[in-house]
Design brief:
single chain, alpha/beta, TIM Barrel, twelve-stranded mixed sheet, 11 helices, 12 strands
């Protein structure tokens, strides 16, 4: 598939739930959120139907997100069903890993999941609990260990937060010297009801380069938002993701599907196309997919004050 700007769209991110067992400051407001009503959520069968259509249209990479995807009942069977779609070359998941037991990790691996991206914003228990509003740090580390033990490719996502976790940058980079993992530092995005917090604690990913010596890799991953580096004597890699200070819209290859059936052409825009209603009415979804591609903007306009009103837990990042 190609959009009107000639970008090849081959990546679908699916938010299977808006529920999460954490309440990270940059993702959810302190007062909590109203969950999507059960009847408004797509069933796993409906999600599979949509994914199958997209795969037939050229999607080769699928990422499962949330909320926290491991909360969704039946997620392991859903992964296994997607694993049978052989045109999918990369089937991955973003998780906070709190529920990633060894047994669950083994079943997900057997079902065809190839990689997990683990959201871990601090290596300090107190800071972790502060960022997540009380998250179980020990469970997160156990989940990380389980992912490595079963042989998943692992990336750790670290949202940079000025005056909160910026002193841990060196510690995170040190992990790449001990384990064959990627540590990716991500600029916090001021969107939705948590925009004030994100603006207050925003720091550019370029500041990582000022705190630790990193060498850019000669070979970069195609269509990845991360600029890749390596530290001396490292067996893993460091990635910098800079959606604000160095946006990568010209290389964007993705669409996003929310748990209630909204297909979003851009993370940082309120543009969306409803797939749930036509799906449940028995309509052909192809025209809706084509319409979404035609709406995909050339670039986001966050710096101009135009962004999505949806909280991050609804979109899936």
């Amino acid at each position: 598939m190609q959009d009107q700007y000639g970008r090849t769209i081959d990546y679908l991110r699916i938010s299977v739930t808006d529920f999460c067992n954490l309440r990270c400051h940059y993702c959810m407001p302190a007062e909590g959120v109203l969950p999507v009503h059960h009847d408004d959520k797509l069933t796993l069968e409906e999600l599979y139907h949509i994914t199958h259509l997209f795969v037939e249209n050229g999607i080769t990479k699928v990422r499962i997100t949330g909320g926290e995807p491991l909360i969704r009942k039946g997620i392991e069977y859903f992964i296994a069903s997607l694993g049978l779609l052989h045109k999918i070359k990369d089937l991955t998941m973003t998780t906070n890993a709190l529920l990633l037991t060894l047994e669950k990790a083994q079943r997900l691996k057997a079902g065809g999941l190839t990689r997990v991206n683990i959201s871990l914003d601090s290596l300090d228990q107190d800071s972790y609990r502060r960022i997540t509003r009380g998250g179980d740090f020990a469970a997160a580390l156990d989940g990380l260990r389980n992912a490595l033990q079963v042989g998943f490719k692992v990336k750790i996502n670290v949202v940079l937060l000025k005056d909160i976790n910026d002193r841990e940058i060196v510690d995170f980079v040190e992990l790449t010297k001990k384990y064959p993992i990627d540590v990716r530092f991500i600029e916090v995005m001021p969107i939705g009801p948590t925009a004030h917090f994100s603006k207050k604690h925003y720091m550019s990913a370029r500041e990582v380069l000022e705190k630790v010596a990193l060498t850019p890799l000669e070979t970069q991953e195609k269509s990845s938002p991360a600029r890749l580096y390596t530290a001396e004597n490292a067996i893993g890699r460091v990635g910098l993701i800079r959606p604000l200070s160095c946006r990568f819209c010209h290389e964007c290859n993705r669409l996003r599907l929310t748990s209630d059936g909204q297909l979003k052409p851009c993370l940082l825009s309120d543009l969306s196309i409803d797939l749930k209603t036509p799906l449940r009415n028995g309509e052909d979804l192809q025209p809706y997919l084509d319409r979404t591609l035609s709406l995909k903007p050339e670039k986001h306009h966050v710096e101009e004050g135009n962004s999505t009103s949806l909280p991050m837990h609804r979109i899936g990042g």
